[in-house]
Q: What sequence folds into this?
């Protein structure tokens, strides 16, 4: 019974055949790979199935597509990226502009709070007190 | 890293993203739209990560990392769309049996054979563990082998 005739029945062959065939996808340095390689060296059934599988797998590779993007689609995607970066506030110019506006707003808020403090009732009392002290000092010294 | 560089990094990935999008949803227009939508989803979901990348100095490492995240976002979205579009995607030339594979099978086989992604990255993109990924690779290869054999028997 060979691969391609009955895909799921490995009985009558070797119980490890399916695992051996995954050798093609497992990383070479992995434990499983090393284990299966060792088994492959000692099992003639798996060895035969493996070589048939490799041949057939090579033949199907050309049917795995590698689609190419059309120039128009490429350009559309690139302009979409630009737009999305602006929308998501990732565009550097936009970011700088927003930072400037934020800084001006902060400065403005600071100015307003200074003015409010200077014209508060507490401060008026301080002004009166300092004027009184000033007059007093002027009179005696 | 500057934002402009990051923007170029993503623009550079257009060919890779299109390839993956097209094998999942084999229609020019749908594949292009899928690329844009997955980028949008990526920018929404991974904003913190993007800001971290922008603050980082290492530019080379980030390139491949960004592509893997974009592949993941694209795959997630394609799963939702595939079932809605399945019927309208019947007119694809499938002499090799690739397009009749399940979505997961197409994804892992394509990523393994047509990209330089490691097995760990494929696991990340498809949100599957090692065993699941290996099983999908195995079943997809076997289905394609079987399909080719059927075709050659029919032609012979």
A:
């Amino acid at each position: 019974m060979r691969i391609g005739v009955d895909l799921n029945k490995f009985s009558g062959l070797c119980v490890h055949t399916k695992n051996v065939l995954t050798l093609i996808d497992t990383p070479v340095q992995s434990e499983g790979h090393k284990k299966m390689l060792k088994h492959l060296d000692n099992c003639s059934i798996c060895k035969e199935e493996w070589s048939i599988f490799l041949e057939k797998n090579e033949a199907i590779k050309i049917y795995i597509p590698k689609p190419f993007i059309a120039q128009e689609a490429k350009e559309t995607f690139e302009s979409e990226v630009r737009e999305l970066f602006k929308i998501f506030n990732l565009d550097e110019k936009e970011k700088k502009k927003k930072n400037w506006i934020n800084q001006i707003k902060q400065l403005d808020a600071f100015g307003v709070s200074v003015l409010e403090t200077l014209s508060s009732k507490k401060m008026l009392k301080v002004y009166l007190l300092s004027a009184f002290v000033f007059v007093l000092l002027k009179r005696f010294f | 890293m500057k934002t402009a560089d990051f923007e170029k990094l993503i623009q550079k990935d257009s060919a890779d993203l299109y390839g993956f999008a097209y094998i999942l949803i084999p229609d020019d227009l749908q594949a292009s739209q899928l690329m844009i939508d997955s980028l949008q989803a990526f920018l929404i979901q991974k904003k913190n990560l993007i800001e971290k990348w922008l603050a980082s100095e290492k530019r080379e490492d980030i390139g491949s990392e960004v592509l893997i995240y974009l592949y993941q976002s694209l795959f997630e979205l394609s799963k939702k769309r595939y079932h809605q579009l399945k019927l309208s995607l019947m007119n694809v030339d499938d002499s090799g049996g690739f397009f009749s594979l399940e979505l997961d099978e197409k994804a892992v086989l394509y990523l393994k054979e047509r990209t330089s992604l490691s097995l760990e990255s494929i696991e990340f993109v498809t949100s599957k563990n090692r065993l699941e990924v290996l099983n999908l690779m195995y079943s997809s290869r076997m289905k394609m082998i079987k399909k080719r054999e059927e075709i050659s028997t029919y032609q012979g």
